[in-house]
Design brief:
5 strands; Rossmann fold; alpha/beta; binds flavin mononucleotide; about 170 residues
Length: about 170
């Protein structure tokens, strides 16, 4: 029997943006960097992804709704989280602490649990000028959340953003 060290676990939170269907690229890149991955989609985001393909890619069911109290979570605790693509709606709710979906509730807990979190926003120029969005981004940055940019949306960028923080968190 080999004595492989346990892989770190990455939660990938997927929102309802037009590019969500390509999130498999992020998952594959993370797996190549030795992450185990679990996907949490927002309820709207579920309609933007191929759930069967992502289940097969990660080897775990996609989560979106809360589990029943008598059911065990199918995911271990997260060592890091990525929100990609991240919508205007989810970013604003997360910053405001409105935990009305499993996805946002999980993100809200990441701060208190000290879990490194990176975000790739998919927010168009008009929405990004809304004052609430600007304040949300500022607040999340102050909480230590690591932001990519809409102009340079690359799936691998999320892993690059996490790298320095994750080395500390999982003792790499
Ligand atoms: C085809 C399509 C593409 C969308 N793309 C985006 C997007 O890139 N960014 C965004 O903030 N909202 C986008 N939306 C709107 C969101 O889906 C909508 O605000 C939704 O409520 C977000 O839910 P969620 O944040 O819980 O995933 C899109 C909607 C549609 C129908």
């Amino acid at each position: 029997m080999t004595d492989q060290p346990k892989k770190p676990f990455l939660y990938v939170v997927v929102c309802a943006a037009g590019n969500a269907g390509d999130v498999g690229k992020l998952i594959t890149a993370a797996q190549e960097q030795r992450w185990d991955v679990g996907v949490i989609a927002t309820p709207q985001g579920l309609g933007f992804v191929d759930a069967d393909a992502l289940t097969s890619l990660t080897g775990r069911p996609i989560r979106s709704a809360w589990r029943r109290p008598d059911v065990t979570s199918p995911f271990p605790p997260a060592d890091a989280m990525v929100v990609a693509p991240a919508t205007f709606n989810t970013i604003n709710k997360w910053a405001a602490g409105i935990a009305d979906t499993l996805a946002v509730a999980t993100l809200c807990e990441a701060y208190g649990a000290g879990v490194p979190t990176a975000v790739l926003p998919s927010v168009n120029a008009a929405l990004s000028l809304h004052p609430a969005y600007r304040e949300s981004v500022e607040r999340l940055r102050a909480m230590g959340v690591l932001f990519g940019t809409e102009e340079d949306f690359r799936w691998e960028h999320a892993l690059e953003l996490l790298a320095p923080a994750v080395g500390r968190a999982v003792g790499r």
